[in-house]
């Protein structure tokens, strides 16, 4: 977790590693973290179980307009290897469970979960290296300085932790009345959670920080 200068300033981010709009929000999370907010990640399992997606032309046609809108709004990069590689590889099954397990493993081993999430997102959307590929996930953990053998062990043993984490994240969504990914809530000093309207700040991290500070005061 991120070190936090202000213990009152905690942001809860309900995300999914395979959600394009969570990639859109990455600069907002980074700006908040740099300003001293602690970011607590809750992965909701968008594409798990029966909701997993086999890449095909229909999926490509569905996601590309969203991706292009995200790029225009935020400047986040979607690379040629993603558009013409990953999104044309019909052997790929998009499964959120794998990157969430990797995220939980990194967190359990004391790694920076937000940095790892962003590394997965950049690998997927910019470089076309699928975030549902165990080998990619392993390599990214090692690049962050996580011991490879320890990561593999933790990953292999956290299936039950994954299930509990997704159930808890979904319960938090219900508690907040949140719709979809990402959803962001500010935790007050009294421990109350306030759902924030983050989406109007895509591409405007400085205005987002002003808004956050207004919510705190």
Automatic annotation (TrEMBL):
Keyword Cell membrane in record: no
Domain annotation DSBA-like thioredoxin: ranges: 16-187
Gene Ontology molecular function: any one: oxidoreductase activity
InterPro entries associated with the record: DSBA-like_thioredoxin_dom, Thioredoxin-like_sf
Keyword vocabulary terms for this entry: Isomerase
Top-level taxon of the source organism: Bacteria
Stated name of the protein: Protein-disulfide isomerase
Organism listed in the record: Shewanella bicestrii
């Amino acid at each position: 977790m991120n070190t936090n200068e202000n213990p009152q300033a905690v942001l809860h981010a309900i995300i999914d590693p395979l959600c394009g709009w969570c990639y859109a929000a990455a600069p907002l999370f980074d700006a908040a973290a740099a300003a001293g907010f602690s970011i607590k990640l809750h992965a909701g399992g968008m594409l798990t179980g029966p909701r997993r997606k086999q890449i095909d032309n229909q999926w490509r046609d569905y996601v590309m307009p969203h991706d292009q809108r995200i790029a225009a709004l935020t400047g986040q990069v979607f690379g040629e290897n993603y558009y013409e590689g990953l999104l044309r590889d019909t052997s790929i099954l998009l499964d959120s469970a794998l990157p969430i397990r990797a995220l939980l493993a990194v967190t359990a081993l004391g790694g920076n979960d937000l940095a790892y999430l962003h590394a997965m997102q950049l690998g997927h959307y910019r470089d076309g290296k699928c975030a549902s590929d165990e080998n990619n996930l392993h390599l990214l953990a090692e690049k962050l300085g996580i011991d490879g053998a320890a990561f593999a062990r933790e990953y292999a043993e956290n299936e039950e932790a994954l299930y509990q984490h997704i159930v808890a994240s979904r319960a938090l969504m219900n508690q907040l009345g949140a719709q979809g990914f990402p959803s962001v809530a500010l935790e007050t000093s009294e421990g109350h959670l306030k759902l924030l309207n983050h989406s109007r700040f895509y591409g405007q991290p400085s205005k987002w920080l002003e808004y956050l500070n207004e919510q705190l005061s």
